[in-house]
UniProtKB/TrEMBL annotation:
UniProt organism field: Prunus dulcis (Almond)
Biased composition (Basic and acidic residues): 8-20
Superkingdom to which the source organism belongs: Eukaryota
Presence of keyword Transmembrane: yes
Name the UniProt record assigns to this protein: Uncharacterized protein
Amino acid sequence: MKNMAHQPSEKEERAQAERRERKKRKKRRKERGSIFSHIPFILQHVYYSYNNIYLKDYRPYQQFIYKQFIL
């Protein structure tokens, strides 16, 4: 009797899988950050496309936008 491992029922297995999935989703969400942390990037994208500024002038505008909206 000792070496018989506990076989999780189908319901328990499903619950465990669900928990694992939820944990993964939470982790991914944490990595992605909140929507608010994306706002400067969205704004800078709009700014670039509006003024037709592309990647050659990317850095200074990034700093500019951070100064404007973050600090």
